[in-house]
Amino acid sequence: MSVEELFKTALAEAKAWHASLPQASQFCDWPSDIHFEPRPAHLLAATELISERPGYTPAASKPLLSALQALAPHLEWRHTYTADQVGQHFLDHYGWFELAGPEGHFITRQTRITGAYWGPGLHYGRHQHEPEELYTVVSGGGVFHVDNREDQWLGPGESRYHASNQPHAMTMKDEPIVTLVFWRGRGLADPPRMTE
Questions:
Q1: Which of 16, 99, 121, 139 could disulfide-pair with 57, CB 3.0 to 4.6 Å?
Q2: What percent of the chain has pLDDT over 70?
């Protein structure tokens, strides 16, 4: 299978995942303006970790996870933060990529679709961003924190909504977490910022 075919397979699985989760399909429509835009691969430790230790994966998640694992060596993996902000251990066990969006492997101006991996035991500190987002858990799990709301552990197939500029955080316990995140609203290409 060619690299472009791997990308198209992953996009098709992401679309099927979006359609299978009412919370995702209600949050945003699948983009109608999407087209493939080759980007150079950029590998991080998470490139291998997503395959070596993805966490608990039920049957419903396996097609999407398998497609992302096959695609991992060809993705432009990114770090939003520096070691001074989050520590080197965090960076060695974390990475994200933009599957589709204003700066993604597939270009669309209508939404943003990102994937990410966090290893066991990591704490992703309070941060915020202008666009609204809907986390969906593909494999593993984590505890999601939102100011003035009860903490919630989410596993595969579950989701968490964050409003525009709503501070939130996440803690992984014994398992890692793999997520597919949908974004909508203004500032889709803007990075999140740590919250004071």
A1: 139
A2: 100
Residues 9 and 2: beta-carbon distance below 8 Å: no
Place of tokens 């049957």: 59
Q: Which two tokens stand for residue 71?
A: 């695609």
Which of the 8 DSSP states describes residue 192?
P
CA angle 38, 96, 9 (to 5 degrees): 50
Nearest CA-CA partner of 56 in 181, 159, 144, 176: 176
Give the 3-state secondary structure of 18-83: HHHCHHHHHHCCCCCCCEECCCCCECCHHHHHHHHCCCCCCCCCHHHHHHHHHHHHHCECECCCCH
- Cα(20)–Cα(9) distance, rounded to whole angstroms? 16
Tokens of residue 23, six digits: 């919370």
Tell me if 65 sits within 8 A of 136, measured CB to CB.
Answer: no
Residue corresponding to tokens 């579950």 = 158
What's the pLDDT score for residue 165? 96
**CA dist., res. 170 & res. 140, Å (int):** 13
